[in-house]
Write a structure and sequence with these properties.
Blueprint: H1 62-65, H2 78-89, H3 95-112, H4 121-139, H5 144-158, H6 168-197, E1 206-210, H7 214-226, E2 231-237, H8 250-255, E3 261-268, H9 272-275, E4 281-285, E5 288-289, E6 295-298, H10 301-310, E7 315-318, E8 338-342, H11 348-353, H12 363-375, E9 379-383, E10 385-388, E11 395-397, E12 402-403, H13 408-425
Parallel strand pairs: 1-2, 1-4, 2-3, 4-7, 7-11
Antiparallel strand pairs: 5-6, 6-10, 8-9, 11-12
Helix pairs in contact: 2-3, 2-4, 3-5, 3-6, 5-6, 6-7
Length: about 425
């Protein structure tokens, strides 16, 4: 039986396979949603993001989050509305500050929470808290430190003594004390890392840092205040996001003592190869440390660690133990966040006005030009974190000790045992 061959329009490849019952193509696009993931509402501009990053969580636009028609809009507490707006606009940056702000809002929310008539306090509180936390997650996906803090708080809620069931005030007081203790632990962990890191900077060293990290900035400030060590500083500027309007790294220059610096160099990551040979140590911040030893940090960190490792330069990562995570991703796409960065064109309205529209353009090209004229700014999708393999990291400076990357499972086990013992005592 002869095979039936269809005519292929010009510009397309020709198939030599037998024709089978091929359905008529339609314009409907079906997006497969992972199990357990909520449906994401995006605006017209966000729907144009490349499908390569469809699985990566992205913060929603404020016009959709705070509209009256938003889901559960009337059930969200004003405290979480305020915090969500700060997250969405980038007013609070850094995983430490975001986590501390969340703990502070949770304490205020517990104080002001009123149980609805006819409902049990714990059940009603858990239901309302879930709605508020889901709203925050839409404003911006949670950092690993925030997920660990929420997990800690949930375990404290479930571990509250049963004899306090009838005393709502006592339960609230116990929960607020737990949140306060966790928040103080974050500050103490940072101070411990600063104390352990100061001895690693010697007189005459050339220190390279990437972007802005709160703990790295505190280390350099503390070394400068000593007055006994002088070092050179190289700052590699991080790519700015749309909410920030400027590159990261310059904040360190404003705080550090100038008398402690021999020289100061600021460059972008494209100039790394020209300056890496003069560097003696590399200090990097971290978003999270994973069980397989990988370091989840701002995108570009793995490139710097790779370059330093190729030149036999020590790479020291500063990370608090409360950022340790029991996940083991093998690439940067497993656990990440999608942001919006600036494209090559800053003011598209000015560019569009200068275009020669007398040139013949297709209907699709005209639609793109009109879209750019309406938006006035080109925003490109940018992943915020990358994964650095443990082979590129010399050591991790934590609030416990200076450890190798592979010690994460041991630290998590010790933390779990301490947590279980504290629940038994309560």
């Amino acid at each position: 039986m002869a095979a039936k061959v269809e005519k292929i329009p010009s510009g397309h490849s020709k198939s030599i396979l037998p024709s089978v019952a091929t359905p008529t193509p339609t314009t409907t696009t079906v997006t497969r949603k992972p199990v357990g993931q909520q449906k994401r509402i995006v605006s017209e501009s966000q729907s144009k993001v490349q499908t390569l990053f469809d699985h990566v969580p992205q913060s929603m636009e404020s016009s959709l989050l705070f509209s009256p028609t938003a889901t559960d809009a009337n059930k969200v507490h004003p405290l979480f509305y305020t915090l969500g707006l700060k997250y969405s606009h980038g007013s609070i940056q850094g995983s430490n500050q975001r986590c501390i702000a969340l703990l502070r809002i949770l304490s205020d929310y517990i104080n002001t929470f009123v149980t609805l008539e006819g409902r049990a306090f714990r059940h009603d509180f858990a239901t309302q808290l879930k709605i508020n936390l889901n709203f925050l997650k839409k404003c911006r996906p949670f950092a690993v430190s925030m997920e660990n803090a929420i997990e800690y708080f949930n375990s404290k809620c479930h571990g509250t003594s049963e004899n306090l069931e009838q005393c709502e005030a006592s339960i609230k007081s116990e929960w607020i004390d737990a949140l306060q203790e966790y928040s103080e632990g974050i500050v103490k962990a940072k101070e411990a890392i600063v104390e352990k890191s100061m001895d690693k900077i010697k007189n005459g060293d050339t220190i390279l840092v990437y972007g802005f990290s709160e703990v790295i900035s505190d280390i350099l400030i503390a070394v400068g205040k000593q007055g006994t060590v002088k070092f050179s500083l190289v700052i590699i500027g991080d790519r700015p996001l749309a909410q920030e309007k400027k590159g990261k790294g310059l904040e360190i220059v404003e705080s550090i003592d100038e008398n402690a610096l021999i020289s100061l160099t600021y460059t972008s990551i494209t100039g790394l190869s020209n300056i890496i040979q003069s560097v003696t140590k590399v200090f990097l911040g971290a978003h999270a440390l994973l069980t397989n030893g990988g370091v989840l940090a701002h995108v570009g960190t793995s490139q710097i660690a790779l370059m330093a490792s190729a030149h036999n330069i020590p790479v020291l990562v500063c990370c608090e133990t409360y950022k340790f995570c029991d996940k083991s991703p093998t690439d940067s796409f497993f656990h990440n966040e999608l942001g919006s960065g600036f494209g090559m064109i800053r003011s598209l309205k000015d560019k569009a006005e200068g275009l020669d529209l007398s040139i013949e353009v297709t209907e699709q090209e005209a639609e793109v030009i009109g879209s750019l004229q309406r938006e006035g700014l080109l925003l490109t999708p940018v992943i915020k974190y990358d994964l650095t393999p443990p082979e590129l990291v010399t050591a991790v400076i934590t609030d416990v000790d200076i450890l190798p990357c592979t010690s994460v499972p041991v630290v998590l086990r010790v933390q779990e045992n301490r947590h279980l013992s504290s629940l038994r005592k309560s």
